[in-house]
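Quick illustration for those who missed Monday's session on complexes.
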Amino acid sequence: MEKPFGHDLESARELNAIVERVFPPDSVFRIDHYLGKETVQNILAMRFSNQMFEPVWNANYVDHVQITMAEDIGIGSRAGYYDGVGAARDVIQNHLLQLLALTAMEEPLSLDSKHLRAEKAKVLEAVRVDDLENSYALGQYAPGYQGGEHVNGFFDEKDIPADSRTETFAALKVSIDNRRWAGTPFYLRAGKRLGRRVTEIAVLFKKSADRLFGKETEVPAGQNAIVIRVQPNEGMTIRFAAKVPGTQMEIRDVNMDFGYGHSFTEESPEAYERLILDVLLGEPPLFPRHEEVELSWKILDPFEEYWEEHKIKPEPYESGSWGPRSAHQMLERDNRAWRRP
Ligand SMILES: NC(=O)C1=CN([C@@H]2O[C@H](COP(=O)(O)OP(=O)(O)OC[C@H]3O[C@@H](n4cnc5c(N)ncnc54)[C@H](OP(=O)(O)O)[C@@H]3O)[C@@H](O)[C@H]2O)C=CC1
Ligand SMILES: O=C1O[C@H](COP(=O)(O)O)[C@@H](O)[C@H](O)[C@H]1O
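Prediction with LXAUTJHC bound:
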């Protein structure tokens, strides 16, 4: 079954009940193709097969986490599917919340689907929205330029009604109410016709005290970061400060890089290749169960209900930009800024 599974918690429960009346649970494969991506599977390997990340992977060290899924394409000829669904239901409820779960969950007892799903469900259940009115931004792409070419706005696309309130960009701020993450916000954003196609998870660390170097540095060194590049240019970047060569003790941020292309000769299978193989083999770990789907709707539903109740009109953003002004303001209110991926 392809996502989205239903359009809210109630319809997802209804759909799950119907499906599970007809098929035994183990023969139902809910597809979230992000779980088939190599880089997404690598989140677990990176977190739990290394010693150096886990000690700092918590609110004591992490300032906040940004999960970005940016697309350069518009909706193309998909108005029939996309209008009325929008970015939040299309990709945040599933792909981005799965990325959040894998980034934030505790170590599972084993890689068995039962244990993996239990940990994902636990962390999704702990997700909270503290101040809903100030924890979202919605946008619709306006005409603009992409790759040097003029592109249509959302309302110029075929079959989009002039009064559509469907968002093509959504950003949300959530928190996770557990000991590991209390006080560390997770910002999620997804949108079409943004600056470039990129999906990444950026874990941004608290700034160091800067007692020794701060004054000598013209451009203050930024935050340490670990960036998991889901796509393209799959890999991981660690960003840290280093001394600029020369007589001054000047500090600047530098990147240390791992790229799949350089490190492995093996090919990464396409996400759907991997998932279809697993369906044929009857292997469930890469498929969300109905509990995770329902917990994800529980996170999104209050936003969707608020947008519907207040008839919120998404803010236009220029195609090729990084989303509406309100998305930047959401982070500015917290003295933070979106990374430029
Ligand atoms: N495109 C992508 O990159 C990805 C898509 N998906 C998922 O794939 C699914 C389809 O997306 P996509 O192919 O892109 O969308 P499209 O809009 O291209 O295709 C949707 C198709 O479904 C048909 N359809 C819509 N409503 C009904 C209905 N009530 N009864 C019968 N047919 C209907 C449409 O027919 P008609 O044209 O006549 O309206 C159209 O052929 C979605 O669930 C999406 O989440 C998942 C991952 C990636
Ligand atoms: O599920 C979906 O994903 C695609 C983007 O997939 P990606 O693998 O290229 O990141 C998105 O275009 C589509 O709207 C959505 O339904």
